[in-house]
Design a protein that fits this description.
The mean pLDDT is 93. 32% of the residues are buried. This protein is mainly alpha-helical and 237 residues long. The protein contains ten helices and seven strands. A three-stranded antiparallel beta sheet has the order 2-3-4. It has two domains: 4-77, ATP12-like, CATH 3.30.2180.10; 81-232, ATP12 ATPase (ATP12-like fold), CATH 1.10.3580. It has helices spanning 42-53, 65-77, 81-93, 105-126, 143-154, 158-171, 174-181, 187-194, 196-205, 209-232, and strands at 4-5, 11-15, 20-24, 27-28, 58-59, 99-100, 133-134.
């Protein structure tokens, strides 16, 4: 992809009728779909403005993770909120935490130690009784549990829902994603729990550079989502 030349000198945050926007000189920043990139908090708006202001002669989209997350919410989450909720509940129905190893006692014990507290948390805090399988055969969660997961997901606005979707799809666990949104776990601990199996395999059999690079990329994306969530909650207009 051809890099885009920087076409602006100044970056500012200003109010419009709907909320906070970023202006590049006198032009309001828009999403790829053409929506005005109106942001929900000053903390987030200033952080996104800083990403734009730090660009050199060419605009490097990969160096603007917060802006990327913001326009994803605007262009994909808000227009498809119902579908996003349904997809997240489906993840919860097959949550990573529900599949524990039956063949390797050492790994099974590691999973039980790392995951059982979150299964208990889901029961106590969310009212979700998860069925846990020993092995990889699919399990079915109860109608009541799926309904409780749907209520938990629906309680979040579009900005938080977007970060829940990112955390859940990266980690494979809706429970861990909800725990992050509710400040029970940070992105680092979520990563450690979600990739417990892979990290255990690396510990046992040795390092794999390609796998390590992939996990590092995922860890960075989780960190960005967690930071974004904090900025969304970091103050009003």
């Amino acid at each position: 992809m051809t890099a885009r030349k920087r076409f602006y000198k100044t970056v500012t945050v200003s109010d419009d009728a709907a909320g906070l926007v970023i202006r590049l000189d006198d032009r309001v920043v828009r999403s790829p779909a053409g929506a005005s990139a109106t942001l929900p908090s000053r903390a987030l708006a200033e952080a996104v403005a800083s990403e734009w202001d730090s660009q050199g002669d060419e605009i490097d989209a990969t160096s603007m993770p917060l802006f990327s997350l913001a326009v994803t919410v605007l262009d994909r989450v808000t227009p498809q909120r119902r579908a996003i909720i349904d997809e997240l509940v489906a993840y919860g129905g097959n949550d990573l935490l529900c599949y524990q190893d039956a063949d390797d006692p050492e790994l099974g014990a590691r999973q039980a130690q790392g995951w059982t507290p979150w299964i208990d948390w889901a029961r106590i805090s969310l009212g979700v009784e998860l069925v846990v399988a020993a092995g990889v055969m699919p399990v079915s969660q109860s109608v009541d549990s799926l309904a409780a997961l749907a209520r938990a997901v629906t309680a979040h606005d579009d900005w938080e829902l977007g970060m829940l979707y990112r955390a859940t799809t990266l980690g494979g666990s809706l429970v861990l994603g909800l725990a992050m949104l509710r400040d029970e776990i940070d992105s680092g601990a979520l990563f450690e729990a979600a990739f417990l199996d892979e990290l255990w395999q690396a510990e046992k059999w040795g390092r794999d550079r390609e796998a390590e690079n992939r996990r590092a990329g995922i860890r960075a994306e989780l960190d960005h989502a967690h930071r974004f969530l904090g900025l969304v909650r970091g103050g009003g207009r």
